[in-house]
Design brief:
heterodimer; A: about 775 residues; alpha+beta; seven-stranded antiparallel β-sheet; 27 strands; rod-shaped; B: about 325 residues; alpha/beta; D-Maltodextrin-Binding Protein, domain 2
Chain lengths: ~775, ~325
């Protein structure tokens, strides 16, 4: 379902379908709009033509009637001057008009005031039809009906031409709407003397205009020149309202056009808003009177067909779009289905199934190209993975070998510290940190005949080649130092050995020293190495002056020269490789010798281990995360001040069991002074008691009383216990440990004591000096 | 406060009288919005409240309201100030008991554009009314010797449409609206009120004799009529319904739109010059100015005394 959802929203088929549908919908909408608009215009044109055709027919009929009236008056008017002398003859004339013209309902000859002195101000013979059809005559004018001010009289008189009056309701003859045609009559001098008129009933107009059937829902109307309704479906409006009554105050565009056209007797059509709907008004003037006949048609009726057409088009369009959407979506899906299959295949390949079968493509198009590309990808991947496997295996093997090499290399240098725990005169600490798995730095040391032999060196380059040279150098140093007893001699021998068949041009800087632990005199030889730093007891640190000999391996047969230096007791000697001085921070600024010397100046009280750790910490802080670029090696030793016996306590014991209590009190006092933990104090007591008991019980023949000594010296973090007796030679360190895995019954007697001592003490050493047993035990404090 | 007291006293007196006093009132034309205040006062019972039994009788074309007053066929009439002054001078002395229209509604509708003064239609055919209302333009014509051919007409609309006249005098509330409703857009309309001829028009009049005999009745009639006009001003839509009722009753050819706009134009002409509510009192300065002009051009023979003309109006 999710996959389906994704497909609809974001799949190619979904998007393409959506795109096609949107474009199609836009094109369809535009086409429909243009088409509907054109159709609507055509419909309007056709409706206009049809309406005006209908109007024209009606107007012709109206004009025909009006022209007949005009003709009737024209044909009779000549009679008036013919018998001017006889006013009564005028009645004959008006009656004759009615007799000869059925459609005329009244006729008059209205004279100017006092035209006939005998007739007075008003003389207007008038004939009319009664309801029964009888023709009657009367004199029209009187005080209450001064016809001289009536439109039908006054307007033709002012215009000097015939005039059709605006329709009016006949006052005398009932509810009949009439119009009057008036023709002015002039005497020979051209002076107007009378107006001859004919009245025409307009009731027939209602039927004639009402019968126009241009459109089903249309209605028709007719207005006079002063815009009063003459014909309207609502009879209340006739002669009471004008077509502009309800719009008084408004003057929109269509109204202005309507007014202009009607006043100027022009045909036309406008679209009007009325009662919330829109109406087309088609109008045309009656030529004779300039009255206007109009057809009012709701726009909705005119455009009914167009609306229907639009609805059908929309339905067809929607169905087409839906069909198109269905077909295009499914069509595109069929086309892009292999792409989805390729997607699945790609996932499987990504999961490691490189031999997954590809979808079958039978066409020769872009999909075929995609198929071929996938096939190529598959082959490439298989090959690549095979290569990678092989490479990885090799790498793993090399890494494994390197791990072993590292272990071996680290095993080559002494790494048990303190290396001479039993020695009170010297303490030493060394540390090597290769930049890679294996490094080219080296150090070594050993004590022989109270002389400390030591070397620190740095083979050029890093990694495996350097490590091999380092291994050789280390091994050679031990071997050479066993028979060559001067530093320059050792260096020269090493140089000759290394430079021989040195095709790789590897070289090694080194500092070799031989320190007489008794005298503090140090002989040394420097082969291009960083000169060591001496930290004097008073806190001053200074760089040792050295002869700048060549590095080893460069020049076969080079004669190295040595030097001597007297190390005061309490001094520390700090040797290092350039991994310290050339350590850098992210800005590539070097750590430098000056910073090192400055740091070491404050370290005079510190044991070698602490000095080493402080320097390494400072380098790490300085590096601030920058990658270690070179191997780092430090070798530091300190000559203890033997004259200082403040740290040395001694007790002389007799070989009596009772002496154990005194010894315990002695130890307890020391532990309290040094603030040693309860647990350590208990363990120390246990171990020393074992050793002392051993001397009391077995060192001397039974019955003899002898003294023996237990001394305790505190140097830095070490407590050195020395038990000296003059008894029978006995080396407890060579005795086998008790097998603690056996049950108490099966365990042989003895061996448990020395086992305890070894467990508790860091080192236990035995020497026979001057016919005395010297057992040295060193406890490292936490 | 005083007037309220007087009304209460009158009411008390009236309630004691057995029969209400009958008054025949004749407006100066057939039923239309011009008389809306009086129709409203009658319909709302304002006259009756003050003890008046009012009967409205419209004149005919040939028998004017002044004729009715002279013949004692009407007790109280409406009349334009100029007609009232001329009648007072020549025939029977009249007393103005209420002045409703404070401003001139006279205009000149011209076919020509840019007519800004009467002189612009010098020598033209200009329609005027058959009776009255045209005195001011005639005076200007005479004074400026414009040689205008005045054509007296019953109604200028159709002659204007037919082209029989070049221009016509008209009233803002009547012919001007009718022209517009007939679809006519005049070339220009000249308002006389804007050219120094802003004289009061319609008012309520009685003969001096009648006034002397029925002062209280006149005052009460004026009071109720004023109340009627105030009501019309506040209720124009309801007033229109009352107008149409009278229009139909009198069988007048018109329509509600025509009457609506007529009423609006009239109410506007009732407001005083600052557009505030009507004072219902004849402005003395305008009266005296008109008095002088009418006398100068011989429309009246002697000056009319303002104080006498307005009776004892407060």
């Amino acid at each position: 379902m999710k996959r389906r959802e994704r497909k609809l929203k974001s799949s190619i088929s979904g998007r393409l379908t959506l795109g096609v549908i949107i474009v199609s919908a836009i094109i369809f909408t535009l086409t429909c709009t243009v088409f509907i608009r054109m159709a609507a215009n055509k419909v309007r044109e056709e409706a206009t033509r049809h309406a005006h055709s209908e109007l024209s027919n009606t107007i012709h009929q109206i004009d025909a009637v009006l022209n007949a009236v005009e003709t009737a008056v024209e044909n009779t008017a000549w009679l008036v001057p013919y018998r001017m002398s006889s006013p009564d003859f005028m009645y004959y004339i008006t009656e004759r008009i009615l007799q000869n013209n059925d459609f005329i309902c009244g006729a008059a000859v209205a004279f100017e005031p006092y035209y006939y002195a005998s007739e007075g101000q008003f003389f207007s013979p008038y004939s009319y039809r009664t309801e029964s059809g009888e023709i009657k005559s009367k004199q029209l004018g009187h005080d209450n009906y001064d016809y001289h001010y009536m439109d039908w009289y006054q307007i033709p008189k002012l215009l000097n031409e015939p005039y059709w009056s605006e329709p009016y309701y006949d006052d005398g003859g009932g509810e009949m709407m009439m119009t009057t045609y008036s023709k002015p009559l002039y005497d020979e001098s051209g002076n107007l003397y009378a107006i001859i008129t004919a009245d025409l009933s307009l009731d027939w107009l209602t039927e004639l205009v009402g019968n126009i059937k241009a459109f089903d829902r249309a209605y028709n109307l007719m207005v006079s020149r002063n815009a009063s309704y003459i014909v309207h479906p609502d009879r209340n409006l006739i002669l009471n309202e004008t077509i502009f009554s309800s719009t008084y105050g408004d003057d929109d565009e269509s109204l202005v056009k309507l007014k202009d056209d009607m006043v100027n007797c022009r045909a036309g059509e406008v679209l009007r808003d009325k009662d919330g709907g829109k109406f087309f008004v088609f109008y045309s003037p009656v030529e004779t009177t300039c009255w206007s006949v109009a057809i009012v048609c709701p726009r909705s009726e005119l455009y009914q067909g167009v609306k229907k057409m639009r609805a059908i088009l929309i339905i067809i369009g929607l169905i087409s779009l839906l069909l198109m959407m269905y077909l295009s979506y499914n069509g595109i899906r069929v086309v892009v289905a292999p792409v989805e299959e390729f997607s699945d295949v790609a996932k499987k390949i990504a999961d490691g199934e490189f031999n997954t079968e590809l979808p079958k493509i039978h066409s020769n198009d872009e999909l075929k190209e995609l198929h071929d590309s996938f096939e190529h990808l598959q082959h490439s991947l298989v090959k690549y993975i095979d290569d990678l496997k092989s490479t990885t295996a090799n790498k793993e093997r090399i890494e494994s070998e390197l791990r072993i090499a590292r272990a071996l290399q680290l095993g080559m240098v002494p790494k048990v510290f303190p290396p001479f725990p039993e020695r009170e005169d010297v303490d030493l600490f060394a540390r090597v940190i290769p930049a890679r798995e294996v490094g080219g730095d080296l150090y070594d040391f050993f004590i022989e005949n109270e002389k400390l032999y030591f070397i620190i060196g740095d083979v050029s380059g890093k990694g495996v080649p350097a490590s091999l040279v380092m291994a050789v150098t280390c091994r050679l140093f031990r071997t050479v130092a066993s028979y060559v007893k001067t530093p320059e001699g050792i260096m020269t021998t090493l140089n000759n050995a290394l430079s021989e068949s040195n095709e790789s041009n590897m070289f090694c800087t080194a500092f070799v020293g031989i320190l007489d632990l008794k005298t503090g005199l140090m002989e040394y030889c420097n082969a291009g190495h960083n000169p060591p730093v001496i930290i004097k007891p008073e806190g001053e640190a200074e760089v040792l002056k050295v002869n700048q000999n060549l590095a080893m391996g460069v020049w076969h047969g080079f004669a190295y020269t040595g030097d001597t230096y007297h190390i005061d007791r309490g001094s520390s000697f700090f040797l290092y490789t350039d991994g310290i001085s050339e350590a850098h921070n992210p800005e590539k600024d070097l750590y430098g010798e000056d910073r090192l010397v400055e740091l070491l100046q404050k370290q005079e009280m510190m044991p070698p281990r602490t000095i080493t750790e402080n320097v390494l910490n400072d380098v790490e802080i300085y590096s601030n995360g920058a990658e270690q670029s070179d191997d780092i090696t430090i070798l530091c030793f300190k000559l203890s001040d033997q004259l200082d016996d403040a740290n040395c306590r001694q007790i002389v014991l007799k070989n009596k069991v009772e002496e154990i209590t005194r010894m315990s009190a002695f130890l307890e006092e020391i532990c309290e002074e040094l603030n040693i933990s309860m647990e350590n104090a208990f363990n120390i007591n246990l171990a020393i008691e074992e050793a002392v008991t051993n001397v009391i019980m077995y060192a001397y023949p039974k019955g003899e009383e002898h003294d023996f000594t237990l001394s305790v010296r505190h140097i830095d973090d070490r407590l050195i216990f020395k038990l000296i007796d003059s008894g029978e030679e006995f080396d407890p360190t060579v005795q086998p440990d008790a097998d603690v895995t056996l049950s108490l019954e099966d365990r042989p007697i003895g061996g448990l004591g020395i086992f305890l001592i070894r467990k508790i003490m860091k080192t236990v050493t035995y020497r026979r000096v001057d016919n005395k047993n010297v057992l040295t035990m060193v406890k490292i404090l936490d | 406060m005083k007037s309220k007291l007087r009304i209460i006293i009158s009411m008390l007196l009236l309630s004691l009288s057995v029969k209400a006093q009958q008054v025949v009132f004749a407006p100066q034309w057939t039923a239309q919005a011009q008389f809306a205040g009086y129709y409203a006062a009658l319909e709302n019972g304002y006259y009756k409240e003050l003890g008046l039994d009012v009967c409205i009788q419209h004149p005919t074309v040939s028998y004017s309201s002044i004729d009715m007053l002279k013949d004692c066929k009407a007790d109280i009439i409406t009349c334009e100030l100029i007609q009232a002054m001329m009648t007072s001078d020549a025939e029977v002395e009249l007393v103005n008991i209420l002045q409703t229209t404070q401003h001139s509604t006279l205009v000149l509708i011209s076919r020509a554009e840019n007519v800004r003064q009467l002189a612009d239609v010098a020598g033209c055919r200009v329609g005027s009314w058959k009776v009255g209302f045209s005195e001011i333009p005639h005076m200007i014509d005479e004074e400026q010797n414009l040689d205008i051919e005045w054509i007296k007409l019953m109604n200028p609309l159709n002659p204007y449409i037919a082209g029989a006249i070049d221009a016509t005098l008209a009233k803002t509330y009547n012919e001007l609206i009718a022209f517009s409703m007939s679809g006519i857009t005049p070339g220009s309309v000249l308002y006389f009120s804007e050219h120094g001829y802003d004289f009061p028009e319609d008012g309520l009049y009685v003969t001096e004799d009648y006034y002397k005999k029925h002062k209280e009745q006149c005052r009460l009639f004026a009071e109720a009529s004023r109340k009627g006009w105030d009501w019309v001003r506040n209720n124009p839509d309801k007033a229109l319904d009352i107008i149409m009722k009278y229009v139909k009753k009198e069988n007048v050819t018109t329509n509600k739109y025509n009457q609506k706009w007529m009423l609006e134009a009239l109410l506007q002409a009732q407001e005083d010059i600052k557009g505030e509510l009507p004072t219902y009192r004849l402005n003395e300065d305008a009266f005296n100015q008109l008095n002088e002009a009418l006398k100068k051009y011989g429309y009246i023979s002697k000056s009319i005394v303002y104080e006498k003309f307005i009776g004892e109006q407060l």
